[in-house]
Amino acid sequence: MSQLHQANCIAIQGRAVLIEGPPGSGKSSLALALIDRGAQLVGDDGVTLIHRAGQLIASPPPHTAGLIEVRNVGLLPFPTVHDRPVALVLTLDPDAPRFVEQAEQAERAGVALPLVRLWPDSPVLALRAELALDRHGLIAD
Question: Domain HPr kinase/phosphorylase C-terminal spans what residues (predicted)?
């Protein structure tokens, strides 16, 4: 059974990353910066999650598939990918810890996932997101 989850989601080398945070925290901006660096859009401001064979699988939500909000520009079409295993949850948090030895744990749709909090106002936020995936993300089967 699938569920709609409010988050942005991109895929990097086949692994999905959920980007969470309060409205206006920069979720879509981070997704757009990661897409500019080679990531692929799964969903903007919503993602369909399904628990399959012990993994959490992300796909675009049907009502906004292929669209991303670009602040001050509008809602724009972007190519999307489907059925990517979720490897990491990133939470944009102005109180994010400076130093992380290991990722926190989060549960989404009944699946345990690593979670890393990132300070949203960094000029190298996309790079930090990629490094967090490399260091803390689950490895795709």
Answer: 6-79
Let me know if residue 141 belongs to a domain: no
At 129 the pLDDT is: 98
- Provide the number of structural domains found in the chain: 1
Dump pLDDT digits (tens) for 37-80: 999 999 999 999 999 999 999 999 998 999 999 989 999 999 99
Structure confidence at residue 2 (pLDDT): 85
The rounded distance, in Å, linking the Cα atoms of 54 and 71 is: 36
Residue 130 belongs to what domain range?
2-136
pTM (2 d.p.): 0.95
Residue 131 inside a domain? The answer is yes
Query: Which residues are CB-neighbours of 93 under 8 A, at least 6 positions away?
Result: 21, 117, 118, 119, 120
